[in-house]
Amino acid sequence: MTIPSLFVAHGSPMLALEEHDYARFLQGLGQHFKIPKAIVVFSAHWDTPIQSMTMDQTHTTMHDFYGFPEEMYKITYPALGDPELNKRIDELFKKNNLNYTPVRDRGLDHGVWVILQKLYPEANIPVIELSVDSTRSPKEQYNIGAMLAELRKEDVLIIGSGGLVHNLRTISEGAQTDEWAAEFDHWIAVELEEWDLKSLFDYRQKAPFADQAVPPYGLEHFAPLFYAMGAADDERKAKRLFQDYQYGNLSLNCWMFGS
């Protein structure tokens, strides 16, 4: 069975410590499919104009946030890299004429390790992190993900880590979900389930409340959706596995693409 690709909302860095429905869902998510031999993550927290890829044999843990409890800065996720997978991705990028920058000694940002320490807490599966480019069109982002679709047949799990509704200027402590956030997520869900690329690629014009859900200064959190979708271009099936909200409108959702 081919491993699917995933879009996983990483929410707040506090997800690493929190115990709630979404955290528990992520802890059991790996049981939905066979254990991957490696993981590739497109992270919203690595936004570069040229595609970049980690090349390390061992990863450090980046604590790329501030103002959080001291316990957060003690968490490590000592996953290994995968030189052979680096070569395979290099081959696929070159085959599709995509220039990229190899990067060493960067570490894994919290868009990667916060979700992986829930999915695979033993950190015993090799990880490669890939950047996103929020200035590219959704179609270009999708096409880059599609370059890696073959990897899913090689037992590589491809994840886009970000947030479909991620506007930190609008969050609140209220327990009630903002209607505009739910409406945007619903529109996205309908288009994903129909795999309507034309509408999705034009979401800024067609989706309700797009400017609130995906503000111009926060495009990088929505971009991983298209990379993850593209990685399942050969199967074009979408299934929502989880949906909830924090802080009024911070969307916590997970989508599975492909098998």
UniProtKB/TrEMBL annotation:
InterPro entries: Extradiol_dOase_DODA, Xdiol_dOase_suB. One of its GO terms (molecular function) is dioxygenase activity. Gene3D superfamilies: LigB-like. Keywords: Dioxygenase, Metal-binding, Oxidoreductase, Zinc. It comes from the Bacteria. Its cofactor is Zn(2+). Residues 34-248 form the Extradiol ring-cleavage dioxygenase class III enzyme subunit B domain. Belongs to the DODA-type extradiol aromatic ring-opening dioxygenase family. This is 4,5-DOPA dioxygenase extradiol. It comes from Paenibacillus macquariensis.
